[in-house]
Amino acid sequence: MTVSGQLNVETHACALGDVYTFGPTFRAEDSHTSRHLAEFWMIEPEISFADLAKDAELAEAYVKYCARYALENCADDLAHFDQWVEKGLIARLQNVVDNDFQILTYTEAIDILNKPNHLKKGKFEQKPDWGIDLGSEHERYLTEKVYKKPVVLTHYPKEIKAFYMRLDEEVVDLKKYEGTKIGVVEGRTGETVSAMDILVPHIGELIGGSQREERLEKLEEAIRANGDDPKDYWWYCDLRRYGSVPHAGFGLGFERLIMFVTGVENIRDVIPFPRVPKTCDF
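The structure assignment produced for this chain is given below.
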């Protein structure tokens, strides 16, 4: 079983430019939450000649497009969901369409969550220390209580992200970020990767993506640090060995998108035959 088609579709992006996949995705993890399935569907764009900023811009535009389309074409359905499923659903979606997403680095988010007033108000089950993988409680607090709109969270610790994500430079080139909304990590360069998640009210993480590591030597180092052998990824490494381009992409879980648009609370209610850990009825 594969996590997704991302590594494979990078070969298509390097040949064809901007591409995407849409298909079933499997997760062999023992997650029993209202947001997780063992099998779900994912939309995964991969764009060539793109960095983290362009990746985040595409992801934000896509979320806004989906919300706007639902508001304009499914008004009766949304009115039903607004009345019977989530009060204020239409206003929440309109807020997404009307406002720029908040750009925040992971490091800045940790600092915000650790402020005494937010720690007291949030009553987090897990303390938001630097280096943890933020949970739904942290993600929803940022979007629902602090900013009251979607948040683009960038530059995560490399230890909690996948090997193929581009390692941030030891020395930050500030010119790289001029004219973009992407922030710069202060004092953490070399410890973070060029990753971004889009967090939205009601759900938490809706999109996860990154700029891909196009430097062969850095990619091989990351594979080894992950406990794997670069030889097992020979075809993936060959993309870099024989000429590559900077590229980036993201994945959006289709069922979470449906939850986001409809207000439905449990992911098992937005797919006809939910497949979850230790359950194989379908």
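Interim note for the steering committee: Residues 105 and 184 are 7 Å apart (CA to CA). DSSP finds ten helices and seven strands in the chain.
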